[in-house]
Q: What sequence folds into this?
């Protein structure tokens, strides 16, 4: 493997990590939004809330909770992908260093 090829690999892995970071930031925002909606809906329920409105709000909360579970699952997937990319990046960086040393010794 040439130095240029090793450098391209490192660069691509860095781009992949940046993309995953952006996706994670979006998911964190969605998680906060869903959690906020759950709290707002729960706080809107008072002792004067009618039975039908209570049922509607309970369905809303359940929907937000399902969406929150999906977001948390997506975050776990992104974390796994990021861990894999970090490992590959570490390996590629080491390979790049070896290629640089090899080229300098010639």
A:
């Amino acid at each position: 493997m040439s130095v240029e090829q090793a450098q391209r690999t490192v660069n691509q892995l860095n781009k992949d990590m940046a993309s995953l970071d952006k996706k994670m930031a979006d998911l964190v925002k969605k998680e906060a939004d869903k959690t906020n909606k759950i709290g707002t809906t729960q706080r809107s329920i008072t002792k004067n809330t009618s039975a039908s409105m209570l049922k509607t709000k309970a369905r809303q909360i359940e929907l937000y909770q399902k969406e929150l579970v999906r977001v948390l699952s997506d975050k776990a997937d992104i974390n796994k992908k990021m861990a894999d990319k970090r490992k590959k990046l570490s390996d590629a960086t080491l390979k790049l260093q070896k290629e640089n040393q090899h080229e300098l010794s010639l």
In short: Residues 35 and 61 are 10 Å apart (CA to CA).
